[in-house]
Amino acid sequence: MHRSVARRLLRYSFFFSSSSSCATNQTPFLPIRIATPGFRFRFLSSATSPFPFPFPPDPSDSNSNDDFSARNRSDTHTSSSSGGTSTTPPRANYEEEQARVLAASLHHVIRSGWTEAAMIAGARDIGVSPSIVGAISRKEGALVEYFMDECLQKLIDIIDSGELQLQDLVPSERIAKLIKVRLQMQAPYISKWPQALSIQAQPSNISTSFKQRAMLVDEFWHASNDEGSGVDWYLKRTVVGGIYSATEIYMLTDNSTDFDDTWTFLNERVRDAFDLKKTYQEVKYFAEAVGAGLGQGFTKKKGF
Amino acid sequence: MSARVVARRLGRKLLPRFAPAATLHSHATSFGFKEVNEEEKSKLVGNVFTKVATNYDIMNDFMSGGLHRLWKERMVSKLSPFPGMKHLDVAGGTGDVAFRILETINSVNRRAAEDILEDDLQEETQIYVCDINPNMLDVGKKRAQQRGLGDMGSLVWVEGDAENLTFKDGSMDGYTIAFGIRNVTHIEKVLAEAYRVLKKGGRFLCLELSHVDTPVFKQLYDYYSFSVIPVLGELVAGDRDSYQYLVESVRRFPPQEVFASMIADAGFQKVEYENLVGGVVAIHSGLKI
């Protein structure tokens, strides 16, 4: 799953490496999970060096440090004798376990909401002590982010499998279809989705949720085979981000069967956007024509 | 790299001189700045706490200016207790941490009962308070009665040694030790026992007086600990020596990074620590998977 994201990002960076104006745009869209540091790893790597920690000099007793250094020396022995085999797997283990707890918690979200209670119930389900929830930083935030990541993965998998048959559609339909597929994923959680949005908007979570949305919008444009660059790049992403968010909000209060009203709304907004693009181009041509005409008039006048 | 080479060279030079001494005093340990026998240390620590038990909480308030309440509060909020939890608080004789955990769970419980049906909550919350010193436990029991928590059955008072716990493997969701691990003879044994009794996913939290590194603040803190605290101890509790031991034992305790690596060596994952008040106290945490 992660490999496919990485592959895409790589392809993406390769694609744009020729145009220098867009190279800077990639930095905000690095995969988020890779950035989380492993604390244990740091400690272990420092414990293997003989003088890893600064010992505060003790003014009143010169012998007092012997105990520390002796103990530390024995530590070094034990950690080096236990070998490198125990260092890397446990770290992955912890993250795996956390992901398992979060995945199990999603079953409880419909009943308990995006809360610690859902996470405690999820941990109980898979036989892990609910204490682990205390070790997850930004608890509810982590749960919503996990869900967003999973949905993005699912979307990428669906696109890669080719079952959407995007190549048969025009760009506006492609965008509309992709947004619809993505929003359908959060349909089961629709009664609790306002809570998720408010969690995403909290100051401590907002940077991650912004990144996730940017990645999602990027994915939409990718899948619709857009190859544009330049100032347009930002404009397009802003517009699709706007359409996605507007539809997401519309969906919250939609009571029609299978969210029919939402999809109608979505199609209209996408059409509006593409019309706007057309209008923008028309205005541009018109302005160019007027400019050319004026210029002509001016030179004529001068010559006259 | 070069430091390592130098260290090895130094070690080679020093080893022959210290090796016989080390084998001779292999059972020596520290009691404050004094070197004592291992058996003697536990006896001496026992004496200290028997002497200070009655004034323990008053002295904590005096010495930390009431800050120790905030520190304990912080540790409990890091623990994030939940209803139905089995928790072990070691060296928590006067019940300070246990009461806080219980109160947090009760408030969580009330909140949870409002919006969700906790049908899977047959398990009752149980907090075990374990202390090696019966005098400290007596103080705790008395306080539990005064607070009206004595009859609820959620608090279990156990007299026991942190290095040799009587609880079964994998029986606890949480393990806390506040201002206690400094006083034990073998820190490694305590950590190994903590790891043993915790369930998969259980957490270890340790609140302990630690080391200050900020230059000016360090001098101030040293002056305060060596000149003010023993005097305070004499004036308030009438016991200078016990508080002299306290400040000395803080200096003998491993620095934050070393202690963190010890926790990691015991098998815990996601080992983190947070310094409070510039390192006067530190909260270490670890997760068992």
From TrEMBL, chain A:
Chain intervals for the UniProt region annotation (Disordered) = 54-92
Q: Which UniProt keywords apply?
A: Lipid-binding, Mitochondrion, Transit peptide, Ubiquinone biosynthesis
Q: Give the top-rank taxon of the lineage listed in the UniProt record for this protein.
A: Eukaryota
Q: Where is the composition biased (Low complexity)?
A: 77-88
User: What is any one of the record's Gene Ontology cellular component terms?
Assistant: mitochondrial inner membrane
Q: Name one GO biological process term.
A: ubiquinone biosynthetic process
Tell me the leader sequence span.
none
User: Where is the protein localized?
Assistant: Mitochondrion
* Gene Ontology MF, one: lipid binding
**Alphabetized InterPro entries for the sequence:** COQ9_C, Ubiq_biosynth_COQ9
All copies of the COQ9 C-terminal domain together span 207-275
Quote the pathway field: Cofactor biosynthesis; ubiquinone biosynthesis
What family does the entry list? Belongs to the COQ9 family.
What does this gene product do? Membrane-associated protein that warps the membrane surface to access and bind aromatic isoprenes with high specificity, including ubiquinone (CoQ) isoprene intermediates and presents them directly to Coq7, therefore facilitating the Coq7-mediated hydroxylase step. Participates in the biosynthesis of coenzyme Q, also named ubiquinone, an essential lipid-soluble electron transporter for aerobic cellular respiration.
Q: Which PANTHER family does the annotation name?
A: UBIQUINONE BIOSYNTHESIS PROTEIN COQ9, MITOCHONDRIAL
Report the protein name in the record.
Ubiquinone biosynthesis protein
Query: Mind giving the lineage of the organism this protein is from?
Result: Eukaryota, Viridiplantae, Streptophyta, Embryophyta, Tracheophyta
TrEMBL record, chain B:
Task: Extract the Pfam families matched here.
Answer: Ubie_methyltran (PF01209)
Q: Name the source's superkingdom.
A: Eukaryota
Q: What are the BP-aspect GO terms?
A: methylation
Please provide, alphabetically and separated by semicolons, the GO molecular function terms listed in this UniProt record.
Answer: 2-methoxy-6-polyprenyl-1,4-benzoquinol methyltransferase activity
Q: What is its main location?
A: mitochondrion
UniProt pathway: Cofactor biosynthesis; ubiquinone biosynthesis
The record gives the membrane topology as:
Peripheral membrane protein
Keyword Mitochondrion included in the entry's annotation? yes
Chain positions recorded as S-adenosyl-L-methionine binding sites: T94, D131, D161, A162
Query: EC number(s) per UniProt?
Result: 2.1.1.201
Instruction: Report whether Transferase shows up as a keyword of the record.
Output: yes
**Could you name the Gene Ontology cellular component terms for this entry?**
extrinsic component of mitochondrial inner membrane
Q: Which UniProt keywords apply?
A: Membrane, Methyltransferase, Mitochondrion, Mitochondrion inner membrane, S-adenosyl-L-methionine, Transferase, Ubiquinone biosynthesis
Top EC class of this enzyme: transferase
Where does this one sit in the cell? Mitochondrion inner membrane
Reactions catalysed according to its record: a 2-methoxy-6-(all-trans-polyprenyl)benzene-1,4-diol + S-adenosyl-L-methionine = a 5-methoxy-2-methyl-3-(all-trans-polyprenyl)benzene-1,4-diol + S-adenosyl-L-homocysteine + H(+)
Job of this protein = Methyltransferase required for the conversion of 2-polyprenyl-6-methoxy-1,4-benzoquinol (DDMQH2) to 2-polyprenyl-3-methyl-6-methoxy-1,4-benzoquinol (DMQH2).
Under the subunit heading, UniProt states:
Component of a multi-subunit COQ enzyme complex, composed of at least COQ3, COQ4, COQ5, COQ6, COQ7 and COQ9. Interacts with PYURF; the interaction is direct, stabilizes COQ5 protein and associates PYURF with COQ enzyme complex.
Family named by the database record: Belongs to the class I-like SAM-binding methyltransferase superfamily. MenG/UbiE family.
* NCBIfam families linked to this entry: MenG_MenH_UbiE
Protein name per the record: 2-methoxy-6-polyprenyl-1,4-benzoquinol methylase, mitochondrial
